[in-house]
C-alpha cells in the first residue's frame, strides 16, 4: 500500500499533511463548492494548486493590493477563502534586508570603480595630449640640470660655512687668548702726533714694557689693575695720548666717563658709589684689554671716589687669565705745580728736555699738606704710574698747527701758521724767552678750520 507523501509546513516541521483532513460530518460549519473554486480564474488563485481537495482551508483577510484589485475588477473575494494562511518566517525578513544591503554595497563599489576608471582614462588622455616636442624636452632637461647644480652649490657653501663656524669655535675654546701690545708702534704714533712731552712718553712706555713682559711669562696675574694718573694744564695732550694708547693694543675695549656729564649731581652721590662698581665690573671682558677712562677727575664727588676705591680693591683679588684692566685718570690737578717746577728749573739754566721723570715725580706724590682727589688712591698703592704733562710753548703750538693743516689736506705755510698762532693766548715766563700757551694745542683744530 502506497504511503501518502509527507508535506512541509511553513514553520519547517515535517507533518503528515500540511492541510489537516476534512471530516465529512454534520457538525461542519463550512461547505466548499469545489467545482466553482476550481473553475475560477484569478491572478491571485491561478498559481495555487490544490493537492488535497478534502483539506481544511485557512482563510485570511485580503492584502491592500488584493483589495484594490478586487475593487477595480468587481470580482468576488470568495476565492480568497481557498488561500492557505501561511505565516512568514522571522528570519526571512532579515535575509531580505541583508540582501538589500548587499545590493546597495555592490552598487556603490561598482560606481566607485567606474569613477576611478574614468579618472585614469582622463589622465592618460591628458598625458597623451601634453606630449612634449624634442626641443621642449631639451629645455626641461637643462632646467632640471641647472636646478640640480644650484642645489649642489648651495649645499656646498652651506657645508663650508658650518665647517668654518665649527673650526672658529674650536680655536676660540681651545686656544689660549693672546694679548699683544706693539710698544714700538705706540712710540712711533706718539712721536708723530704729540709734541713737548718727553717725560710722559718715558713714563708710559717704561710701564707698558714691564707689564707686557710679565704677561708673556705668566698667564695669570693677581696684581693691581694698571692705573695711570695723567696730570697737567689744559690742552697739553692728556686726551690725545689716551687715544693713542689704543693703537698699541690689538684688542682694546674702552669705556669713557666724563665726570661733569655722567656724575653731575652731588645729591646723587650715594647712587654714584653703587653704580660705578656695577658699571666697571660689568664691562670687564676676558682676553681683552679693558680700558676705563675717567676725565676731569678733579671734579669727582666723594661717593664716586669711594666707589672706585672699592671696585679697584675687589679686582685685585681676582686672578684673570690674559686680561688687562687699565684705569686712566685725567685731571688738571697739580698742573700749576708742574708748570712752576719747569719754570724754576729753566730759570736755573736747565733745559726742558733734560728734566727727567724721576726729578718731577715728587711734585705729584708729596701730598702731606694737600687735599687732592687721588690722595687715598696713592696712600693705598692703587696708582701704578703718575704721568706729568709739561706746558706747551709757542714752538710746540706751531707744530700742532702744521700737523693739523696737513691732516686736513692743505699745504702749511709760514704765513698761515703764524696767523693762526697769533690768535692763541700766551703767557711770558721770566725764565724763558719763548711764550707759553694758556690752552696748549686744545683750540688749534678749530682755528685751522676757520683759516683753510
Task: Characterise the protein shown here.
The chain has 452 residues and is α/β, with parallel strands linked by helices. The protein has 4 domains: 25-85, no CATH class; 146-175; 183-387, Rossmann fold; 392-452, no CATH class. It is 50% helix and 10% strand. It is built from 17 helices and 11 strands. The strands form 4 sheets. Strands 5-6-8-4-9 form a 5-stranded parallel β-sheet. A two-stranded antiparallel ribbon has the order 1-2. A hairpin with a 5-residue loop joins strand 1 and strand 2 (14-15). The radius of gyration is 60 Å and the shape is elongated. The relative contact order is 0.08.
Are there runs of 5+ residues with pLDDT below 50, and where? 1-59
**Strands of the largest sheet, in order across it?**
5-6-8-4-9
Shape: elongated
Helical residue percent band: 40-55%
In round numbers, the mean pLDDT is 77
Terminal CA distance: 157 Å
Q: Give Rg in angstroms.
A: 60 Å
User: For the report, how would you describe the main beta sheet?
Assistant: 5 strands, parallel
Amino acid at each position: 500500500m502506497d504511503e501518502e507523501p509527507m508535506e512541509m509546513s511553513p514553520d519547517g516541521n515535517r507533518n503528515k499533511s500540511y492541510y489537516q483532513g476534512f471530516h465529512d460530518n454534520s457538525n461542519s460549519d463550512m461547505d466548499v463548492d469545489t467545482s466553482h473554486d476550481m473553475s475560477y480564474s484569478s491572478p491571485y488563485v491561478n498559481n495555487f494548486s490544490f493537492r488535497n481537495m478534502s483539506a481544511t482551508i485557512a482563510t485570511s483577510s485580503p492584502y491592500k493590493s488584493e483589495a484594490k484589485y478586487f475593487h477595480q475588477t468587481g470580482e468576488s473575494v470568495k476565492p480568497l477563502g481557498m488561500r492557505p494562511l501561511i505565516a512568514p518566517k522571522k528570519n526571512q525578513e532579515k535575509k531580505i534586508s541583508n540582501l538589500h544591503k548587499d545590493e546597495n554595497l555592490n552598487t556603490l563599489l561598482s560606481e566607485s570603480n567606474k569613477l576611478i576608471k574614468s579618472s585614469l582614462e582622463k589622465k592618460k588622455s591628458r598625458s597623451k595630449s601634453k606630449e612634449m616636442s624634442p626641443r621642449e624636452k631639451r629645455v626641461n632637461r637643462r632646467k632640471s640640470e641647472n636646478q640640480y647644480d644650484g642645489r649642489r652649490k648651495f649645499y656646498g657653501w652651506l657645508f663650508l660655512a658650518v665647517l668654518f663656524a665649527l673650526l672658529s669655535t674650536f680655536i676660540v675654546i681651545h686656544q689660549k687668548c693672546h694679548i699683544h701690545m706693539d710698544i714700538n708702534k705706540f712710540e712711533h704714533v706718539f712721536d708723530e702726533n704729540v709734541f713737548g712731552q718727553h717725560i710722559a712718553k718715558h713714563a708710559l712706555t717704561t710701564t707698558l714694557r714691564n707689564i707686557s713682559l710679565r704677561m708673556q711669562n705668566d698667564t695669570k696675574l693677581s696684581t693691581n689693575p694698571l692705573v695711570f694718573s695723567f696730570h697737567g694744564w689744559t690742552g697739553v695732550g692728556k686726551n690725545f695720548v689716551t687715544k693713542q694708547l689704543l693703537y698699541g693694543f690689538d684688542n682694546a675695549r674702552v669705556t669713557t666717563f666724563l665726570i661733569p656729564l655722567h656724575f653731575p649731581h652731588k645729591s646723587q652721590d650715594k647712587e654714584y658709589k653703587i653704580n660705578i662698581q656695577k658699571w666697571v665690573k660689568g664691562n670687564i671682558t676676558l682676553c681683552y684689554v679693558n680700558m676705563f677712562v675717567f676725565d676731569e677727575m678733579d671734579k669727582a664727588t666723594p661717593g664716586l671716589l669711594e666707589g672706585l676705591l672699592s671696585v679697584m680693591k675687589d679686582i685685585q683679588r681676582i686672578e684673570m687669565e690674559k686680561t688687562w684692566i687699565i684705569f686712566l685718570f685725567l685731571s688738571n690737578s697739580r698742573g700749576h705745580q708742574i708748570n712752576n717746577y719747569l719754570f724754576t728749573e729753566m730759570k736755573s739754566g736747565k733745559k726742558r728736555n733734560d728734566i727727567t721723570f724721576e726729578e718731577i715725580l715728587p711734585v705729584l706724590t708729596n701730598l702731606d699738606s694737600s687735599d687732592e682727589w687721588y690722595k687715598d688712591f696713592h696712600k693705598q698703592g692703587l696708582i701704578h704710574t703718575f704721568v706729568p704733562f709739561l706746558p706747551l710753548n709757542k714752538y710746540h703750538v706751531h707744530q700742532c698747527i702744521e700737523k693739523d693743516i696737513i691732516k686736513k689736506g692743505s699745504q702749511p705755510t709760514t704765513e698761515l701758521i703764524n696767523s693762526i698762532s697769533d690768535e692763541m693766548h700766551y703767557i711770558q715766563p721770566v725764565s724763558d724767552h719763548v711764550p707759553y700757551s694758556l690752552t696748549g694745542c686744545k683750540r688749534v683744530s678749530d682755528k685751522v678750520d676757520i683759516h683753510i
